[in-house]
Design brief:
This protein is about 30% helix and about 25% strand. The protein is α/β, with parallel strands linked by helices. The protein has one domain: Rossmann fold. One of its GO terms (molecular function) is methyltransferase activity. It comes from Opisthocomus hoazin (Hoatzin).
């Protein structure tokens, strides 16, 4: 099947605010307020997160997250994890230690006082301590979510190893990424050699591809 061609919709809601670092979005009938930080790559909302959030909202029958166990790797600001939480999932959002404070803040403020499953925020360094921190005997996820985790960095092999580690039989990986460099396509090729991979949607204006594996 050919991928759906989509445009990232302006779910961003402009607000007059004294804080330049807060963005307001609306997904699944909820207003989501995201605090960004210019100090870390992971603390900014990248286009892949918008694309996957939009797709999950629009394709709830195809990907029903209600009461499913969802792990997001490289969760960044937490937008995708928050959307998954609103959609009824048991969410674990993970990222590097230096990003966790902002991630926890965003997830907490957008999911508290609701009837959602309480999300969890945990440290995860790709390829490190997986057996100790997430033993296979205890942790099994229905969905693995990742957005804009592939860019010009040196941790691509550990990232792939992390995806392989968490993808057990029955796990669906949904990965949205802005494709910028030849290394991005090389990663896609490696992923396709390991997983049954399908491009679900493309967002040409943003150079974003959304893949299922």
């Amino acid at each position: 099947d050919s991928p759906v061609i989509l445009k990232i919709l302006q779910n961003w809601v402009p607000r007059i605010s004294p804080y330049f670092d807060k963005e307001h979005y609306t997904y699944v009938g909820h207003q989501i307020v995201i605090q960004e930080s210019i100090e870390h790559f992971g603390a900014v909302v990248w286009p892949g997160a918008l694309a996957l959030s939009q797709y999950l909202e629009s394709n709830q029958e195809q990907f029903n997250l209600k009461d499913k166990k969802v792990l997001e790797i490289g969760a960044g600001t937490g937008l995708v994890s928050i959307v998954a939480c609103i959609l009824g999932a048991y969410v674990t959002a993970t990222d590097l230690p230096e990003v966790l404070e902002n991630l926890s803040y965003n997830i907490s403020r957008n999911t508290q006082n609701t009837n959602m499953h309480k999300p969890e925020v945990r440290k995860l360094v790709w390829g490190e301590g997986l057996d100790e921190d997430f033993p296979v005997s205890t942790y099994h996820y229905d969905f693995l979510l990742a957005t804009d985790v592939v860019y010009h960095h040196t941790a691509l092999d550990p990232l792939l190893a992390t995806m392989v580690y968490f993808c057990k039989p029955g796990t669906v990986l949904l990965w949205a990424n802005k494709f910028r460099f030849s290394t991005d396509y090389e990663f896609l090729e490696k992923l396709g050699n390991i997983f049954n991979t399908t491009i679900l949607a493309e967002f040409p204006e943003s150079n974003v591809k959304l893949l299922k594996a």
